[in-house]
Amino acid sequence: MAPRTPNTLASPLAAGAALLAAAALAGCGKAPDLVVRISLDQVFSEELVREFERETGLVVQAQYDIEQSKTVGHVSAILAEHASGRPRTDVFWNNEIAQTIRLAEQGLLAAYDSPSAAEIPALFRDAERRWTGFAARARVLIANTDLVQPDEVHGTLDLLAERWAGKAGIALPLTGTTLTHATALYQVMGEAWARDFFGKIAAANAEGLVNLPNSNGQSMTLTKAGELAWAFTDTDDYYVAEQDGAPVARIYPDQVEAPGTLMKDGAPIGTLLIPNTIMLFKDAPHAENAKRFIDWVLRPEVEARLAASRSAQIPVRERVARPAHVGRLGDFKAMQVDYVALGQDIAARTEELTKLFNR
Amino acid sequence: MSRSSTPLLCAALAALALFGFGPLASVVSPFLRDAFTAGPSMFLMDVYDARTLGLLSKTALLGLSAAGLAVLVGAPFGFLVARTDVPGAGFLRAAGIVPLILPPLVLAMTWTMLVPLRGPVMTALLLALATFPLVALFTARAFEQIDARREEAALLVGGLPAALRMELPLVLPSVLAGACLAFVFAVNDFSLADYVSSVGKKFGVYATEVFTASKVDGNQGRAAAIAAPLVGLSLLALIPALTLRRRGSAVVAGDFQRPAPLRLGRGRWAAFGFCALLVTLGALVPIARLAFEAGGGSRLFGSGSIRRAAWTQGGGAAQVVPPPAGPAALGAPTEQAIVDSAERRAAVAAAASAAARAATVRQLGGVAPAAGAPTGAAPAAGDSGAPTTFPKPSNSAAVGSFKRDSPEAVAAAAATAAAEAEAAAGKPKDRGPLGQRLAQFGRNLRGSFARALELSRGSLISSIVFGALAATLAVPLALILGHAAARRRRGRLMELLVVIPLAAPAILFGIGAIALWNHDLTARIYESGAIVVLLYVGRFLAFPTLALSRAAASVDERLEESAALAGTSASRRLFSIVTPALWPSLVGAWTMVFVLSIRELDAAILVPAANDTVLFRVFNAVHFGRDDFVSALCLLVVFVLLLPGLLWSLFARKRMEFLP
């Protein structure tokens, strides 16, 4: 017979571990009625999701992203879910459009003509109704007014101007809206021009003449703190700095003929407009609830809420109310891009730009 | 030879295979399939080119520099706090671990604000600052394992220099083991390099390549292929680390005599200065900076950014930049393109002020504190041209307080909102007397913590629960694996196996976890927090296994052999004889998994249930520049990370053992 040892810790240790493991494996909480991935920043979208839950009584499992991975992180996860043969995501609320087109091209999206989207202009709706655009952001320049006057900077080519050497920046164009912006420049200005331009940006960065922050958020933070005089960012990031009381000004780039303005066929190219997009997945496990969510998000009231929030998204429907500072689509010249072609092009551009900038 | 229980070991190995290797297999199989389809040489030529190989060598050089610097400061630090009479050795030793616990991004955020240095040099310096505790911990342990009698003999022969000459070869393997781990840490981190080179020349590292590749067009085979050299580089450092750590951790004999502290004489204060400087640079400055920001110090006392001061020296950019040749000079319209930000800031200030007043009214039970309060309605332009009142004020603090009824949070939000309103109205330049500013700082600090707790309590609890569950699940597995690694003939192979999941890039591990668990049979796991716990266990099992393997090796094997002869089962021997002797290591192993789990972001970020963890919130909040809130939240995270160690030091007599 085995002797009884004085300190038998086996039982409590093993029992405790088993109990906790069982608790972990069993999972906790009610199963969701709807699984949504959202790349619009959590601080803006979370409250809306909660409100939808309160109104409908549905339990939403919302997956947000972080600044570093942005939309492409969601897309990777969605593709991984589909590759494993068990799609879990019902709806993707993307804060840009290029990756949406990629998903549509891969045949992952279902057609859904939401009644809430009736007034949304055709430019922002897929002809096959696989996605719908709303609440747009614009690419803008944020300028620190302690360091530079707003009328001193005009557009894209100012990045390479000698007078701004070391004082201006654009986020590394490998993720997010900066990647979309870069891809749009390839489309609008032509491949040769864009290659030359980004080659010059990379070379200027190697000499410390152009700064490449790791995100638009950081471009804003650096400009707000005075480490940069001005930088490219998105309107939502700009408003965060402004509402924090920072000495900043917003400049729509490439609007008027001026030394730093990028011109195409004798006219400024305008600023890139990037709408949010929302889409329903084929084989969505909760398709009916997903449609309810899409209908809810596409209501004019939600677009107005997004306009009034700190992100100050620009409503794409003319009649939607908005604070005065948000402006309207006609307030500035928008870059004319083919969003579908842009979405088809973005993977190849990511690879090309990675090779150029990650050295 | 005392063997561990085979059924238990098989179960633990099965868990390692499932949780650790399962996700890796899910991403490696597409890699092998693609390589087979395209032909191995074509595939490899496509994936690896001169640029990627250049990046790899640059990353290796960065890792070597960081590890070298870590040895340069970590080894003396470890020796001084463990073996000498340096004042405050106990505190310095404990505080010296903090830089390792702090997320590297916090170090980067702090030091880039204070020092204008950028690029590879700054990256290497910060990585060394983050990793020197690894070298210091290994060094300290090795020095403590030298028998007093041996040291006394050396001291008698030639004093301190002779003792050090005798001891250095004995501690060198441990120092190098720490350096190898520092190298692995440095080559796998990309957030720090990325952040540090946000201004000035971009400094690319291989981990960035892996991160980007894993997100382009969902081609996981290619991503795995790109990651392979980094995994190889990490294993190249981990394998010697495993060997060196075995050499450096001699089994302490039963008649071992702990050596007395070496007397440094007048040099003890210089030694104190050196140790205190390291602790200050790596722990106190970042924490102080977080506290400064949490109290709104940037608004009250200035940002303290040395870089900006240098940049604007001599009158700022306005003097450096030539006179404007603006659109007005060219006859172009400016009004549409450039909006009057001063006007808008005034509107924002009014909204913030209204939010603060509303919060105060709520606190006072509906009694307005003063007449003439603004309405809080943001100016709007609808079709009718009539102003539209939006349901919420734009001020974040007040939004938080409206949603929750905690009086402390409401009061704090009101104070913070008032400060924000003042700042927005341009008042920071006239900041008032120091006493008032300090009082305001105190109020802001309380307000920030109240907001951080109110807005992130759920995330904080989620992180703690996930971390605690992962640690509690990992430790019994690690005990079985570690004991087997210490006692069995192929123990080293087992140690090598267990570190492989750790060497894989985190984001690929996360994608692999989705592929592994997202099936009908495992739907409950995938859709619940269980996947997060299992992901943490699989990824971090190496640390507790190695720590417990070392600890188990120090238990006299004869005890187990005697029990075996008496007929005690292997599992009973493990849990009744070995385990009681390992409490400090068991707690240390638990703490290590807990800390690593709470710090984890890259792997877990892709799985649904990890959405509500506190580090996720921190990263999102950092993006929006909410300095007060996010800094307070960072401090809360640091406190949670330090809590197990603090509790142990308060209630236990023995030192917690957590080193591999």
What structural keywords apply?
heterodimer; A: about 350 residues; alpha/beta; nine-stranded mixed β-sheet; two-stranded antiparallel sheet; about 40% helix; globular; disordered N terminus; B: about 650 residues; mainly alpha; about 0% strand
Average predicted confidence as pLDDT of chain B: 76
Look at the structure and give the mean pLDDT of chain A: 87
Structural class of chain B: mainly alpha
Cα radius of gyration of chain A in angstroms? 23 Å
Unreliable spans of chain A are 1-10
Q: Report the span from N to C terminus of chain A.
A: 68 Å
Total strand segments of chain A: 11
Alpha-carbon distance between the termini of chain B?
A: 23 Å
Radius of gyration of chain B: 28 Å
> What is the overall silhouette of chain B?
globular
Give a verbal description of the structure:
The complex is a heterodimer of chains A (359) and B (660). With 359 residues, chain A is of the alpha/beta class. Helices cover 40% and strands 15% of the residues of chain A. In chain A, the strands form two sheets. In chain A, strands 1, 2, 3, 4, 5, 6, 7, 8 and 11 form a nine-stranded mixed β-sheet that branches. A two-stranded antiparallel ribbon of chain A has the order 9-10. The model of chain B is unreliable at 309-341, 351-418 and 420-429 (pLDDT under 50). Chain B is mainly alpha-helical. The longest helix of chain B is centred in the C-terminal third of the chain and has 54 residues, at 434-487. Chain B has helices at 6-38, 40-47, 50-83, 89-95, 98-101, 104-114, 119-144, 148-188, 191-196, 206-213, 220-248, 267-294, 297-301, 306-311, 317-320, 341-363, 396-403, 407-424, 434-487, 491-503, 506-517, 523-526, 530-540, 542-553, 557-565, 570-581, 583-599, 614-623, 627-651. Chain B has 29 helices and no strands. Chain B starts with 5 loop residues before the first helix and ends in a 9-residue tail after the last helix. Classes of the chains: A alpha/beta (359), B mainly alpha (660). Chains A and B meet through α1, α2, β2, α3 and α7 of A and α3, α9, α10, α14 and α16 of B.
